[in-house]
Amino acid sequence: MKATPPVAAPSALVDAPEPHPRAAKVRTPASAPLPPAPSLLQEKTGSVGVARAVFGLLLIFCLTPWASPPLALALGLGLAQTVGNPFPAHTRKLTAKLLQYSVIGLGFGMNAHAAVQAGQEGVLFTVASIAGTLILGYGLGRWLGLGRHVTHLISCGTAICGGSAIAAVGPVLRAKEEEMSVALATVFVLNALALFAFPAIGHALAMTQNQFGLWCAIAIHDTSSVVGAATAYGDQALQVATTVKLARALWIIPVSIGTALLFKQKGVKIKVPYFILGFIGAMLLNTYLPALQAGGAWQEVGPLLVQLAKMGLTVTLFFIGAGLSMQAVKAVGPKPFVLGVALWLLISTASLYVILHR
């Protein structure tokens, strides 16, 4: 198994010059962390077969009713730190598509009227938090001495929807591959922490389902971790979190356009998150198609698709965890990680305070 080339040292990202306008377009998947290098055990014993067997057993377990999104992520992390991920290229490719199809499937368990109400409640939080995060990120990035591209990528990932936002904004910036990798690693490490920490905090503060769902959608980076944390909290929290988060993800488009204007990039292509339209279509079908209603000919189809979507999400988080090796974490370096943690803590605590006291 070939080792993945190491990510550039973080010091190279400090006050880095802007990339040449003709720099190659980065093709980093929307929800894929850094590909891990072979584990120490694999390097010493060459036990690729063992790694594949362990991977297969864990994957099968993630498809059972006993697996949950947090547990799947933990199993993936354990795999990455021990025998290693034997299929980094495959899991990296599957993660983004599997997440998108899972989100669409969740739409068959949602009611359009409730979703509109949840979206209206979260729109002001969305606008204020996105604008505030981008402004704070710019100031903190300058104070830390980070390059403009890394600062903007981490800020967009924190403000909108993690890896999806970074993958959309990166080509607009014509960012370098190492800049993309550092930003992705930063947000994925924080996603893993949030998936475990948020449900515990929510229960400790006795947050309602609506409160927790709204908080998840605003304060957790990636859609996969938002849905995973909300699923662990309750069905109503899941509905609120998914609706608000996907509405938030639509801000990729105006932020990408603003990025092109701010950084004076011409001839770039804006990446549109089309899977959100699939989610809306599934939700409308579930709400207005009589055959899917109680007593209808297809009344069992909706719950089945939702169950398959939740299984897909669980597998997605297992793949993400399997990609977070120690090499990926160490490659982030102190300064980008400080920026990511600072922004995350600020948006998490500020939104939590507003939600509990409004």
Automatic annotation (TrEMBL):
Keywords: Cell membrane, Membrane, Transmembrane, Transmembrane helix. InterPro entries: UPF0324_pro. Residues 1-38 are annotated as: Disordered. It is a multi-pass membrane protein. Its main location: membrane. Belongs to the UPF0324 family. This is Membrane protein. It comes from Hymenobacter glacieicola.
